[in-house]
Amino acid sequence: MKINMTPLSDPAYLTRRQFFGRNALGLGTAALATLLGRDLQAADAKRQIGGLPGYPQFTPKAKHVIYLLQNGAPPHVDTYDYKPGMEKFRGQELPESVHKNQRLSTMTAGQKQKLVLPPFTPFRQHGQCGAWIGDFLPHIASIVDEVTFIKSMHTTQVNHAPAITFFLTGAELPGRPSMGAWATYGLGSEADDFPGFVVMTSRDKEATCGQIFYDFYWGSGFLPTRFQGVKFRGSGDPVLYLSNPDGQSREVRRGLLDDLAQLNELKYAEFGDPEIVTRIAQYEMAYKMQASVPGLTDLSTEPESVLKMYGPDVSRQGSFAYNCLMARRLVERGVRFVQCVHAGCDHHRNLSTQFEIQCRDTDQPSAALVADLKQRGLLDDTLVIWGGEFGRTPFCQGDINDKKTLGRDHHPYCFTIWMAGGGVKRGFSYGQSDDFAYNPAVNPVHVHDFQATVLHLLGIDHEKLTYRFQGRDFRLTDVHGRVVKEILV
Hints:
This protein has helices at residues 16-23, 25-37, 96-99, 138-141, 160-169, 179-187, 250-271, 274-296, 304-310, 320-332, 354-375, 447-457, and strands at residues 64-71, 123-126, 131-134, 147-154, 197-203, 230-232, 337-343, 382-387, 391-392, 410-411, 415-420, 428-430, 432-433, 440-442, 445-446, 467-469, 472-474. By secondary structure, the chain is an alpha/beta fold. Helix 2 packs parallel to helix 8 (274-296) and helix 7 (250-271) runs antiparallel to helix 8. It is globular. Residues 1-14 and 16-46 have low confidence and may be disordered.
């Protein structure tokens, strides 16, 4: 008896795309079920939407992360890592036993002298913990009793883009998922009408820092693209194309999206491509954001006292202060991971001029964010991270006698970051650099250790959150990393 087989049912007729699409059906079906079944969950404003079964793997200390990434690298010698003993070596050659001829950027690799440049500003002790902070950061100095400083961070990259990529994705080359994508892939979000991962960028008003914001800093890599960060713009509508076209009502828009979803579901049934699920999810999220974003950006609901906390730039869309306030408002609404990237710290030849301006732009908003989260009861389960991709050299770049043009070069071998809230100790300092703030002397912390610790605070075992791609199980920390338990509450 002859059996009639259609091309779609006969494997011999399947295209390569159809074959692989159908083999991805299991993953796509699970994702689609998560997407379409979310409205069947209990109406709890703080419920978890999406995420992997069994995640978090243990009780998390933090439910949200706000990463204040200082693109360009602030100088640790002039901010948090006080080395008064450097003063007696001012202008002297840094001993080779300290720098060990380690690799430097091309801007100082050929510089004939490495003359010691002590802290550019006075330092004072602050808080009950007695932390030493440079005078250009008076507001951060006021919150040191909420902060854990890590003064022995080190990394491998000496240039900005690969160093930032390493911090955010665990690899120096683009193409891996960013930390925010990993977090939302594993944990989902508490927000039904906002993305789980939101990104905002800002830069110094004088535009002295030439660093570029690359999309792969918040990309999803090989994870489904619905986990990539959604960038909120610094001017105009925060997200493009949210407004309906002229003459189209919200009801008409709803009908169009419903019809489009049905077409996409038919296509998904045919190909099993998980990216079709992403398309359905993103159209639906965009519709919800039409109603949620205007409320997010309406600062008229903020008390004047709160606006003053963040400083005079808070009402200027696209400023670091504005983004810090938006970050607090986003985590209030259940967003899992907020990444605020600010470019302005790249002080090669303008340390004496631009450094103070940069501190003025970022100091008050950073401190206000921590204080604001605390007064609202959000700091306990929100982890705030502040730091750059590396530090800056303890020796002078340029002519040490020309104050107007001296600076500091990139320095990956030891630098400082800080964290607050979300399960880290308060008023605590971990790790220590050597007498010249050049290399770690006590308890070095690598980038992968930092990543493992952040995931741990979110209730994730960094060795178990993996994704199979091209025949290998990948993870944020590659095959490295230890949780720095000494800084945890």
